[in-house]
Design a protein that fits this description.
This protein has 303 residues and is of the alpha/beta class. It is 31% helix and 20% strand. It is globular.
Length: 303
């Protein structure tokens, strides 16, 4: 289903139910609602919302094969899948949606600010937007996301919060955890080994700062109250980054590989300098050197 990271109902393992749990959480806001699923992927989540109270759901995704797959697998009278770039949401009128949903998608969007500007325009005054993005607070999070060639927005929770705050006046962070005593969570298991469902995950409202002390499976925000038009930034404003967050360009198949570095590392090196200076300033030069060495060491190295 096109290049990228896809989770599908045809392989219902722990990873699938972790993704589905966010739709389960968002379903509380979709009763008799017009819903936009931005980055609908394999389509199972849009269908889930359509089956759990939504008046109508539009599932949009940039992948034409993903959209075709969704159309084949999930047919509902209150559901429509469309090929659409989240950087250019078109065909919808202002304040059309009661709920805008996007999970495990926005880290892939090259100009994600364009999406937020569209979401600001499309969300009703009393509507809700639910988004989930990767939790990047620990060294291991930085390393995993830097190595993932599909993740372009390597942003901390505070970076996401700050950008959302440009367009919306109410932003509630949620801690995402797993709650099935005696059962370990394994994103690499098989459907046959899976004994959980989407209801075995918990979402707890927290202050933003708690993400940095209590590791979460994801960073989830429930957003509401779009700001007045004269209060949002101009379309061409310069985005300010905090905590070493950065956005890198998509990796092309034609990008030449630098000896000793993967394509994603060679393309992202100039952005990593910013992260290095941040670590040096906050933790000291020795800590920066240790983290650089650990990051450049091959993953299969045992030394």
């Amino acid at each position: 289903m096109n290049n990228g990271e896809r989770v599908s109902h045809i392989y219902p393992n722990d990873c699938f139910f972790a993704h589905l749990s966010i739709y389960y959480f968002a379903a509380q806001y979709c009763e008799n609602s017009l819903v936009l699923d931005a980055g609908s992927g394999a389509g199972y989540g849009s269908a889930y919302l359509a089956d759990h109270g939504a008046k109508f759901v539009w599932g949009v995704d940039i992948g034409d094969k993903a959209v075709e797959f969704s159309k084949q697998k999930f047919q509902r009278a209150n559901l429509l899948y469309q090929v659409m770039d989240l950087q250019d949401l078109s065909g919808f009128h202002d304040q059309q949606f009661d709920l805008i949903y996007s999970s495990n998608t926005l880290e892939h969007v090259p100009n994600v600010v364009n999406f937020f500007r569209s979401a600001w325009r499309l969300l009703k005054e009393n509507g809700k937007m639910v988004i989930t993005v990767p939790p990047i607070t620990r060294d291991v999070d930085w390393e995993e996301n830097n190595r993932n060639i599909y993740h372009l927005n390597i942003w901390t929770p505070r970076q996401w919060y700050n950008v959302l705050d440009l367009y919306f006046s109410e932003i509630q962070p949620y801690w995402l955890g797993f709650n099935k005593p005696g059962v370990p969570l394994d994103f690499n298991n098989t459907p046959e080994q899976t004994v959980i469902n989407e209801k075995d995950f918990i979402f707890i409202p927290i202050p933003l700062e708690d993400y940095y002390t209590k590791p979460s499976l994801g960073v989830t925000f429930v957003v509401s109250k779009p700001r007045l038009k004269n209060a949002i930034p101009a379309a061409d404003f310069q985005l300010f980054f905090v905590e070493g967050s950065y956005t890198r360009p998509p990796v092309s198949d034609t990008v030449p590989q630098t000896p000793g570095l993967s394509p994603v590392r060679s393309q992202s090196l100039k952005y990593m300098v910013t992260r290095a200076f941040t670590v040096a300033r906050e933790e000291g030069f020795s800590s920066m050197l240790r983290k650089i060495i650990r990051y450049l060491k091959p993953k299969n190295s045992s030394n």
